[in-house]
Structure formats: structure tokens, C-alpha cells
Design brief:
By secondary structure, this protein is mainly α. Helix content is 46%, strand content 0%.
Length: 195
């Protein structure tokens, strides 16, 4: 009986020691990882605590005036003008960032093609807050991302539109569902001409 109690006490002591030591080893591992593979901002390439540093995020140009998605002329909150609407036109298109901004372009290209999903997790709170301020979703609304072709999804391992959409749905308190499917494998947008 005393041997059993001694073994039990030893196990409790060992367990307590492991509980105390675990955070130390975790901190040591994290520190060593950051020394060997430091996190760098995807825009300015400087060492950072996040994949996008605060100064670079603050330099992202937020679009102040939205345009009609059909005629590209100014429109209130990106709504399609009544004279521009047809059966296959979008009802509304909101652009949150100015994609001519070099930092925004660098984030998108580096995040997508160097396979850094954290870059999109970092901007997601700002994106979802901007969407929440720009639209009033109907009661039956569903947030869904534009899908990737299955082969590109498998290669990249994530869909940046999905990451952002999940945050937006949560912030709007709206259901998130992946309801669209991409059947054709199209060229990447960065390889296309403007026309």
C-alpha cells in the first residue's frame, strides 16, 4: 500500500513538474523558431511579430468612393445604377482597398503565391469591419467565398477569399456557406491582360 501511495505521489510530482516545464519548453521552442526562421512582414520584409506589420497595414489605402460595377462611374455604396442593370449584372460591388496601392498588391500576391494564409488572417478584422460599415445584409443573406478550382485549392492549401469570408460572416452575424463551385480551371488573374 505504501508503495502505491509513493508511486502516486511521484506521478503527481512528475505531472506538476511537466505542467511547470511545458510553458518553458514552449517559449524556448517559439524563441528558437523565431531566431532560426524570423517572421517577416509580407510587404516591407522587415522582422515583425505578425506577417503584416502595423505601419504597412496603416498605409493601405481604403477606397472612399465606390463605383458601379458595370459602367465604373461613381455610385453610392457600389450599387449598380438602374440604367446599367441587366439580368446577369451584379447588384453591388464594394472594393475595400485601392489595389493600385503597392502594399495591397504585395500582400495579395505574396500571401497567395508564397502560401502565407496568415497574411489574410491579419487583414480580416479590418476587412470585415469595412464590410459591416458598407452594407446592411438582408435577413436571409449568406456569406460565401469565390471558390478556387479544386486543383489550385489543393496546391495552395487555402482560399484567401474563404478566410476573409468567414471573418466577414462572423462579424455580420450571418451564416457562412461554401455554395459555389468552380468547374473550369482558368488562368490566374495576375497572368491576364487588363482587357
Amino acid at each position: 500500500w505504501s508503495l502505491l501511495v509513493t508511486c502516486h505521489l511521484s506521478l503527481v510530482t512528475c505531472h506538476l513538474s511537466l505542467n511547470i516545464m511545458h510553458p518553458l519548453f514552449t517559449d524556448l521552442y517559439t524563441t528558437l523558431l523565431h531566431v532560426l526562421l524570423p517572421i517577416r512582414c509580407v510587404v516591407c520584409k522587415k522582422e515583425s511579430s505578425e506577417t503584416l506589420c502595423v505601419p504597412c497595414l496603416n498605409h493601405f489605402t481604403v477606397v472612399q468612393e465606390q463605383i458601379c460595377p458595370t459602367c465604373h462611374k461613381p455610385s453610392i455604396v457600389g450599387l449598380t445604377h438602374a440604367t446599367c442593370a441587366h439580368t446577369r449584372s451584379l447588384d453591388q460591388l464594394i472594393s475595400l482597398y485601392d489595389y493600385k496601392n503597392k502594399g495591397v498588391a504585395e500582400l495579395i500576391i505574396t500571401g497567395k503565391y508564397k502560401l502565407i494564409p496568415d497574411a489574410f488572417h491579419v487583414i480580416a478584422p479590418q476587412v470585415s469591419a469595412l464590410v459591416k460599415n458598407s452594407i446592411d445584409p438582408p435577413t436571409n443573406a449568406v456569406v460565401t467565398p469565390l471558390p478556387l478550382h479544386w486543383s489550385r485549392q489543393r496546391w495552395r492549401g487555402f482560399n484567401q477569399a474563404g478566410i476573409l469570408s468567414e471573418h466577414i460572416a462572423q462579424n455580420l452575424n450571418t451564416p457562412y456557406e461554401e455554395v459555389l463551385v468552380r468547374h473550369r480551371r482558368t488562368k490566374t488573374q495576375k497572368d491576364l491582360h487588363k482587357a
